[in-house]
Amino acid sequence: DKGNHRHFMLKEIYEQPIVVAQTLKSYVRRLDDQVSLPTPDFDLSAIRRVTIVACGTSYYAGMVAKYWFEQFARVPVDIDVASEFRYRQPVMEDGGLALFISQSGETADTLAALRHARSEGQKIAVVVNVPTSTMAREADLLLPTHAGPEIGVASTKAFTCQLAVLAALAANLARAKGRLDPREEKEVVRHLSEAPAAINGALAYDEAIEAMAHLIAPARDVLYLGRGTDYPLALEGALKLKEISYIHAEGYAAGEMKHGPIALIDENVPVIVIAPSGPLFDKTVSNMQEVQARGGKVVLISDYDGIQAAGDGCMATITMPKVHPLIAPIVYAIPVQLLAYHVAVLKGTDVDQPRNLAKSVTVE
Ligand code: F6R
């Protein structure tokens, strides 16, 4: 049932404040300001290395997690898409945790990668949205997302719920490694708990984004740029746009533009820049200005401070609530999803059932 929404995808985008809050309930305790895992008997402190494997949008959630695990827990992380991981003979040493992320829990490549990692002696952690799925059954450490059934083929609420679980896992790992003192843990809990309200704040820009979609819909190619945890978000934005609007889109690390892709820039290629104000903001803005100097039309997604500092000269801006960098990827996922959605609606595509795609990819 789509409720009063035109598509399942839009309904699922709007469910995010509730389902992220629901998911966080299992992983953060406001009462004593602690992060927690549903299966606490797992010895995280012994983990020496994490290998993350997933496909598509779930893989991009994993990319964000790599930044978090390394930054907070100082644990080395390897990450790959499942279809490559399976066949490249990856080196997995003792004491490794292999982490698989999947909405469905049935994706063939991810499942095969899981079984391979087990045969190589890795502990198996699974972030999955379907608790009865094959991957859920095969996990040593099951970390469910509580997004509820996701019907739209394009993943939305599962992604933000995955990020919520992964942030909590990063904090758990950091604590187990002695790298998160109670005061820092309290801060993490506070920031994560702010995510649902911030997502609500982001949803308030739906109409503005709908109006802006008219600027993107005529394009043949669109680029997305971001740095740090906003880089995977740029990749996710491009994937969302491709799969439901059929517009060609690519995501790049903002700093990579000058190594090739900037040659694509002209007034016909809109560039979506994802840049919350923070430590990497100035760097991203200077990449954005390089694009503008070559006639590129920029849409800047930032907060009020960011738009004030760098919004002049942009084709359009989207103002997000000001949030802590930890939850920025969760909150900035919303405008990225809404933009793809509204462009697809303008293009008249079958938003919930895009051509050539299946919700669950159970063949290799
Ligand atoms: C994109 C999308 C796909 C899935 C991918 C993995 O919107 O939905 O890229 O993310 O097929 O699926 P799961 O997460 O079920 O393993």
UniProtKB/TrEMBL annotation:
<comment type="subunit">
    <text>Homodimer.</text>
</comment>
<feature type="domain" description="SIS">
    <location>
        <begin position="212"/>
        <end position="354"/>
    </location>
</feature>
<dbReference type="GO" id="GO:0006047">
    <property type="term" value="P:UDP-N-acetylglucosamine metabolic process"/>
</dbReference>
<dbReference type="GO" id="GO:0046349">
    <property type="term" value="P:amino sugar biosynthetic process"/>
</dbReference>
<dbReference type="GO" id="GO:0004360">
    <property type="term" value="F:glutamine-fructose-6-phosphate transaminase (isomerizing) activity"/>
</dbReference>
<dbReference type="GO" id="GO:0005829">
    <property type="term" value="C:cytosol"/>
</dbReference>
<dbReference type="GO" id="GO:0097367">
    <property type="term" value="F:carbohydrate derivative binding"/>
</dbReference>
<feature type="domain" description="SIS">
    <location>
        <begin position="40"/>
        <end position="179"/>
    </location>
</feature>
<keyword id="KW-0032">Aminotransferase</keyword>
<dbReference type="GO" id="GO:0005975">
    <property type="term" value="P:carbohydrate metabolic process"/>
</dbReference>
<keyword id="KW-0315">Glutamine amidotransferase</keyword>
<dbReference type="GO" id="GO:0006487">
    <property type="term" value="P:protein N-linked glycosylation"/>
</dbReference>
<comment type="function">
    <text>Catalyzes the first step in hexosamine metabolism, converting fructose-6P into glucosamine-6P using glutamine as a nitrogen source.</text>
</comment>
<keyword id="KW-0808">Transferase</keyword>
<feature type="active site" description="For Fru-6P isomerization activity">
    <location>
        <position position="359"/>
    </location>
</feature>
<protein>
    <recommendedName>
        <fullName>Glutamine--fructose-6-phosphate aminotransferase [isomerizing]</fullName>
        <ecNumber>2.6.1.16</ecNumber>
    </recommendedName>
</protein>
<keyword id="KW-0677">Repeat</keyword>
<dbReference type="GO" id="GO:0006002">
    <property type="term" value="P:fructose 6-phosphate metabolic process"/>
</dbReference>
<keyword id="KW-0963">Cytoplasm</keyword>
